[in-house]
Amino acid sequence: MPKAILPQPKGWYVYCYLRTHSNRPYYIGVGSRPDRMTARHTCKVPRDWSRIRVMRQGLTRDEALRWEVFYIERYGRKDLGTGFLINRKEGGICGGKLSPETRARLSEHTKNNPPPQPNAEQLRKRATNRMAAVAARHGIPVEQYIAMSKYERDKAKEWCIANPSLPFSDYMPQTMETRQLRTAVARGIPEDIYMSMSKKERNALRMWLVNNPDKTGEDYLAGVRKTSGPKPRICVETMLCLLSQGLSQAEVARRLGCAQSVVSRRVRAA
Predict the structure, then answer these.
(1) Could you tell me if 137 and 94 lie in one domain?
(2) Which domain holds residue 202?
(3) DSSP assignment of 40-105
């Protein structure tokens, strides 16, 4: 159906949408530009623009808002049961407020019809699609990009941005083990010792080297780590036996030479 010529009102105006069969208005609005009448609304805009009528024009903003309130009150609102308009606001300056009946109806509808939540398979598929899009944008094979860790992905993207003319086959991402060996060499610690360290102890080594820039990892092994010694091995049976004797967790930790948090964690695990 060919669209009719859109009215070109002057100044601020009040317009309405007419129903096809009854020729009655079902929506009242205001605007200051002609395209406002066909812009996106909370209701459906008529396909035939001849069903759009300008009721008042050549008004100021305040006059247009007052006329909007007048027409909405005159024809009545469908949600309040006072008429046949689908407007859900009072119009005018109070247009941002919904009536208590409308708020209750919308709240009840939301409770009875909650939005569907994506399941784990859908979330996994979305993440895969996002990673595939990023890989295609940077020219990285999708399977290789998905198999990478977050650190490797960031490094691969940085390399692609810095070398836009080179194919990704020239980039050889470092594996986790290779990075750890390089870190051990950079910090001056034998590779086997560094690989046996826990993440917490590696962080402690890193902070110690930051605070002591004139020393190396060998100094850490010979001094701090040697002084602290290996962590004591806690026998769960001995710990439970001491607790059964009525000793507190702090006393048990003092006797076993460990922290109280270790005793509490072992008690919860047991």
Answers:
(1) no
(2) 185-228
(3) --SSPPPSSGGGEEEEEEEE-HHHHHHHHHHHHHHH-BTTTTSSSB---S--GGGGGPPPHHHHHH
The answer to whether 13 touches 31, Cβ cutoff 8 Å, is yes
pTM of the model: 0.37
Cβ contacts of 128 within 8 Å, gap of 6 or more? 146
Contact between 88 and 42 (Cβ < 8 Å): yes
Judge if 17 and 103 occupy the same domain. yes
**Cα angle value 91/62/94 (rounded, 5°):** 30
C-alpha to C-alpha distance for 244 and 232, rounded to whole angstroms: 21
pLDDT per position in the chain (270 positions), as tens? Answer: 446 677 788 889 999 999 888 888 999 999 888 788 887 777 888 888 888 889 888 888 888 888 888 888 888 888 887 888 988 877 776 555 556 776 677 677 667 776 666 778 888 888 888 888 888 888 888 888 888 878 788 888 888 888 888 888 777 655 555 667 777 888 888 877 777 777 778 888 888 888 888 888 888 877 765 544 455 566 777 778 888 888 888 888 777 767 777 788 777 776
Q: Is 213 part of any domain? A: yes
Are 22 and 104 within one domain? yes
